[in-house]
Amino acid sequence: DADVTQTPRNRITKTGKRIMLECSQTKGHDRMYWYRQDPGLGLQLIYYSFDVKDINKGEISDGYSVSRQAQAKFSLSLESAIPNQTALYFCATSERGGADTQYFGPGTRLTVL
Amino acid sequence: AQSVTQPDIHITVSEGASLELRCNYSYGATPYLFWYVQSPGQGLQLLLKYFSGDTLVQGIKGFEAEFKRSQSSFNLRKPSVHWSDAAEYFCAVRSGGSYIPTFGRGTSLIVHP
After folding, report:
1. Is some CB atom of chain B closer than 8 A to the CB atom of A99?
2. What is the pLDDT of residue B103?
3. Looking at residue A99, what is its pLDDT?
4. Does the pLDDT at position B44 exceed 90?
């Protein structure tokens, strides 16, 4: 089984709809992250969490919110989706301390019409 | 602030040829440096990382990278490319005082038979 899973893998929604992307991990890591990937722009950090009670904004948090339900679960919500939020979304985890190598999920491809 | 530049958006090589992907970073002190690979339809996977010590780092899949402080570079190399190496490659940098890496925009590797 994959260590970092994301659901759904693909989603098509309409402008104005609320949508939630979910991330679960079995690596036992404290730190979790949400990234957005657009072609030619690399990865942009949306939110990150270093433990269950810690939530921090990344560089592009506007229009997004997150919830850290447990150590293993970190959800990303789009309260009112807009077309320019069409992108590939990745969840990642890392272990406290050390090198903070990140472990990525397979991604969720979101299309907002 | 830390930043990463991958000057090449696309690189095309023939199978069996050598490969070098460029990465330049901006950070005053010695950074933590990473190379990740993203195969089509998958999340990112760590290829190798540098924190300290030997400036030539060996990674998975036959890749290596060399940290050159004088050039602020961390170029990725492979002596003989295989068709399965076709993917997107991301360089990332993290400063000692930040737990959040900054990713480059990526280099797309195309391998011709």
Report:
1. yes
2. 93
3. 64
4. yes
Beta strands in chain B (DSSP E): 3-5, 10-14, 19-21, 24-26, 32-38, 44-50, 56-58, 64-68, 73-78, 87-94, 102-103, 107-112
Q: How far is B3 from chain A (nearest CA, A)?
A: 12
> Which pLDDT band holds residue A1 (cuts at 50, 70, 90)?
low
Q: How many CB atoms lie within 10 A of CB A16?
A: 10
What is the spatial distance between Cα A57 and Cα A62, in angstroms, rounded to a whole number? Answer: 9
Shortest distance between the Cα of B43 and any Cα of chain A, in A, equals 4
CB contact under 8 A, B103 and A42: yes
pLDDT tens column, A78-105: 999 999 999 999 999 998 766 678 999 9
| DSSP for A3-48, written as a single string | SEEEE-SEEEE-TT--EEEEEEE-S--SEEEEEEEETTTEEEEEEE
Q: How far is the C-alpha of A111 from the C-alpha of A35, rounded, in Å? A: 16
Q: Hey, what are B75's tokens?
A: 């170029």
CA atoms of B25 and B51, how far apart (whole Å) = 14
pLDDT of residue B30: 74
* Interface contact flag, B43 A102, Cβ < 8 Å: no
How close does chain B come to A55, measured CA to CA in Å? 13
B32 contacts A40? CB cut-off 8 A = no
